[in-house]
Amino acid sequence: DPFIKEPIRHAALIPASEKPFNAELPPTLLVANFITPNELFYVRNHLPVPEVDPKKYELEVDVEGTNKSIKLTVESLKKLPKHTITATIMCAGNRRSEMTEVKPVKGLSWGVGALGNAEWSGVLLRDVLISMGIDENSNFQHVQFEGLDTDPTKKPYGASIPFWKAIDRKGDVLLAYEMNNEVIPRDHGFPVRVIVPGVVGARNVKWLKRIIVSNNESDSHWQQNDYKGFSPGIDWDNVDFSKSPAIQELPVTSAICVPSPNQTVTVRDGHITAYGYAWSGGGKKIIRVDVTIDKGDTWHVADIIQQDSAEPPQHWGWSLWTVQVPVSKNAKEVEIWVKAVDSSYNTQPESFKNIWNLRGVLSNAYHKVPIKLQW
Ligand code: MTE
Ligand code: MO
User: Which ligand has the shortest distance to the CA of 179?
Assistant: First the structure.
């Protein structure tokens, strides 16, 4: 069993699969903290968690087509300037279970909890590349990452990001060795993972073994044949993965975390109260969260409870919100809907039907939560 050396996990995490381990937090706990505690951060592993001896650990950085190559230990990374960002990491499959209701898709059945918000500290990948003589003017297209976790054929988990994101002064791509001021836990990439803020979870490679500056994308399964979006008209009999680009920046999304679906809610002073999160990729900030309980006839603007102070295009964290909505007298049930708007005025689509895709990714339609009312 390749999974016998897995870390111990917090009992509050709800498993979506055990081997490999994948789990999310219940929605009420998810929005209890602006900074998600390490032990409560969702886990998305494709393979067994590797065991790494930090004393022997070395991260290799290679530049394709040149003899430039360096090896970095955790100690040598710690000697470089330390940089900290608040960033939300979200799986491309977050909220997939809602899309499944339209028509089945292939993938883990995530609820609204396949994301977390943490403070990540480490070294800017840009600083490491500049120390190797690479800068904005260098002619490379991609930066590839390989993890220490391998499949049964010994191929590592891998992904890549565009070169511009890695070298951009405002890209904030981190070789992170701390999560919320602690050593990164094993499940989240000990001892070093790359944090690519604003970009889909899949590119935030954990247990980083090797970085390759290249003209090509990663050839890994997860870059080429997964984590891509398609038209609702494409299904497994006619899909061609080479026809869609790999997902990088994620679109705007939001969710209602309190109350839960089908919960009985007590009406107070003629109002109900809801709580949730909203987030957008690409360094965009949430500028508004709209809520309705009458299918859009009346909209209410939620209050942002907490949000990072960084401005776009470097706003990487989620926003927590709350709203009080008046309910009409003696109503017995209502459906709460939410949609968020980001700093580019992007907003969410209304229905899953028209964004359905065979892998159930980019599942960001309005979140709709039916509840019962008690007066
Ligand atoms: N990195 C490695 N090496 N192996 C993996 O399986 N999963 C990716 C990414 N990085 C993965 C990885 C995916 S799909 C996601 S959503 C995030 O890690 C999840 O990060 P987390 O487990 O720290 O929440
Ligand atoms: Mo993911």
Answer: 1
Query: Is there an atom of ligand 1 within 6 Å of 201 CB?
Result: yes
Question: Smallest Cα–Cα separation from 86: which of 197, 169, 208?
Answer: 197
C-beta 45 within 6 A of ligand 1:
yes
Write the pLDDT tens digit of every residue in 115-159: 999 999 999 999 999 999 999 999 999 999 999 999 999 999 999
Atom number of ligand 1 nearest to Cα 147: 3
CA 256 vs CA 243, 268, 335, 345: distances in Å? 34, 19, 11, 20
**Distance in Å, CA 181 to ligand 2 centroid:** 24
Give per-residue pLDDT as tens, 209-241: 999 999 999 999 999 999 999 999 999 999 999
> Which residue's CA is minimally distant from atom 12 of ligand 1?
205
Q: How many domains does the chain contain in total? A: 2
Instruction: Specify burial of residue 46 (Cβ count, 10 A radius: 0-12, 13-18, 19+).
Output: middle
Q: Take residue 93 and report the two structure tokens written for it.
A: 């499959």
Q: Is the CB of 204 under 6 A from ligand 1?
A: yes
- Do the beta carbons of residue 197 and residue 172 sit within 8 Å? yes
At residue 130, the 3 state secondary structure works out as helix
> Which residue among 180, 209, 243 closes a domain?
243
Q: Which residue range forms the structural domain that includes residue 300?
A: 253-374
Closest C-alpha residue for ligand 1 atom 21: 43
Residues 334 and 357 in one domain: yes
Residue 56, domain member (yes or no): yes
Residues 223, 94: one domain?
yes
For residues 67-99, one letter each, b for 16 or more C-beta atoms within 10 angstroms of the residue's C-beta and e for the rest, the string is eeeeebbbeebeeeeebebbbbbbbbbbbbbbb
CA of residue 108 to ligand 2 center, whole Å: 10
Of 243, 276, 308, the one marking the end of a domain is 243
Q: Is 147 in the pocket of ligand 1 (CB under 6 A)?
A: yes
Give yes or no: residues 299 and 188 share one domain.
Answer: no
Kindly identify the ligand whose nearest atom is closest to the C-alpha of 38: 1
Q: Is the predicted ipTM greater than 0.85, yes or no?
A: yes
Q: SS3 of 230, please?
A: coil
Task: Please tell me the residue having the least CA distance from ligand 1 atom 24.
Answer: 43
